[in-house]
Amino acid sequence: MDIEVIRSVSQFEQMAEQWNSILKEGASDVPFLRHEYLKTWWSYMGGGEWEEGELYLVVARKDAIFDGDICAIAPLFFTNNRQGIPVLMLLGSIEISDFLDVICPPEELPAFLDNLLDHLDVECPFPWQKLDFFNLLEDSPTLPALETAALKRNWKFHQECLQHSPYVPLPGDWEGYLAGIEKKQRHEIRRKIRRLEQAGIPFRWYIVEDADQFDAEIDEFMIMMEQDEEKRAFLTERMRLQLRETIRAAYNNHWLQLAFLEINGEKAAGYLNFDYNQHIWVYNSGLNLKMREYSPGWVLLGYLLQWANEHQRKSLDFMRGDEEYKYRFGGVDRFVVRATVSRV
Q1: Rg over CA atoms, the chain
Q2: Is residue 331 part of a domain?
Q3: Which of 117, 168, 159 is nearest to 138 (CA)?
Q4: Structure confidence by residue, pLDDT tens digits, 263-292
Q5: Are 273 and 294 part of one and the same domain?
Q6: How far apart are CA 293 and CA 276, in angstroms?
Q7: Which residues make beta-bridge pairs with 229?
Q8: CA-CA-CA-CA torsion for 196, 231, 134, 36, nearest 10 degrees?
Q9: What does the buried/exposed string (b/e) look like for 223-240 if buried means 16 or more CB atoms within 10 Å of the residue's CB?
Q10: pLDDT value at position 129?
Q11: DSSP characters for 23-45?
């Protein structure tokens, strides 16, 4: 492998086609590693999570030919982490990108990570003390390959569990899905949907498709988010810009699922999901508290699960967080981890 470093934002911006092509073959093909997502994340430094950082994309090319095809990417940046230690981190770290990883086919990971560590040890210009990788899924093949590459050099490797990250496997059939969850919860989903459907009031749910209304729909989604005190604090001005551009990027690249439930002509609930790689990734939600009597969040989630089954999606991924409702809807537990490598 021939290793190349990209530090220019303009070069980063030009990599979209190759980047996303490699991701499709990668060990972790998730929306948070898409070029358009990470380019937006870097533009706003995670909505203001990071005050400063230096872009450091490490690219491997095939056959040791400088102009050959890219075969792997370590999307890194240099900064001081929360403990004040100079580190190299994955683009997207930490708070708003649920799953991160390097971008590489599984069979190439051992060679790529070996070359990566050699390069970082000798040629990286930054005084990094650790690789500090957050939000890797616990079954990522990057983890054992990175540990092997680190221990080969007598470097320290450490892995720690961070958060629950449940997902719902989907059988491709609504009744089959309901049959697979607990009886009490199955009854609750049906009861709440039936209560709205039999209430004698106009309602509808829909997935946003109208480009002319798109910006207004984003505005209304954020208004609902703001009704939650924690989410209102989260939505700083910079985070709003980050979120809006992320939503627009996902829409333009055909992996957005922004859905609403309306009751009596008024938005009652909304879900901001990513419909990517045959999975639904539940990113955020908003509720109109005036409509709580209709359980709009549960009802809309029920409709979305029905849609996902009917459209043969493989899972509905609740991503990070161990909120009770995720398990009541059939969530299967797993975890995201943090991996660090220290030179000694």
Answers
A1: 21
A2: no
A3: 159
A4: 999 999 999 999 999 999 999 999 999 999
A5: yes
A6: 32
A7: none
A8: 80
A9: ebbeeeeebeebbeeebb
A10: 97
A11: HHHSS---GGGSHHHHHHHHHHH
Euclidean distance between CA atoms 228 and 269, whole angstroms: 12
Residues 185 and 260 occupy one common structural domain: yes
- Please state the domain count of the chain: 2
Provide the pLDDT for residue 36. Answer: 98
Please name the amino acid found at residue 178: L
For residue 61, which phi and psi values (nearest 5 degrees)? Answer: -115, 150
Backbone angles phi, psi at 6, to 5 degrees: -115, 120
Q: Which residues contact 272 (CB under 8 A, 6 or more apart)?
A: 221, 247, 258, 283, 284, 285, 286
- Nearest to 120, CA basis, from 92, 156, 63, 78: 78
Q: Which domain holds residue 56?
A: 2-162+336-342
Do 158 and 181 belong to one domain? no
- Verdict on whether the full-model pTM lies above 0.70: yes
Judge whether residue 66 has pLDDT over 60: no
**DSSP class per residue in 283-301:** EEEEE-GGGGGG-HHHHHH
CA–CA distance, 271 with 260 (Å, rounded to integer): 7
* Residues paired with 157 in a beta bridge: 341
Tracing tokens 């060679």 back to the chain, one arrives at 111
Q: Reply yes or no: is the peptide bond before residue 94 cis, omega within 30 of 0.
A: yes
Other beta carbons less than 10 A from residue 23's beta carbon: 21
CA distance 118 to 144: 17
User: Do 219 and 156 share a structural domain?
Assistant: no
CA distance 115 to 153: 12
Does position 151 have pLDDT exceeding 60, yes or no? yes
Does residue 54 sit within a domain?
yes
Positive or negative torsion for Cα 84, 141, 324, 268: positive
d(CA 304, CA 217): 18
Instruction: Name the residue among 24, 61, 19, 59 with its Cα closest to residue 37.
Output: 19
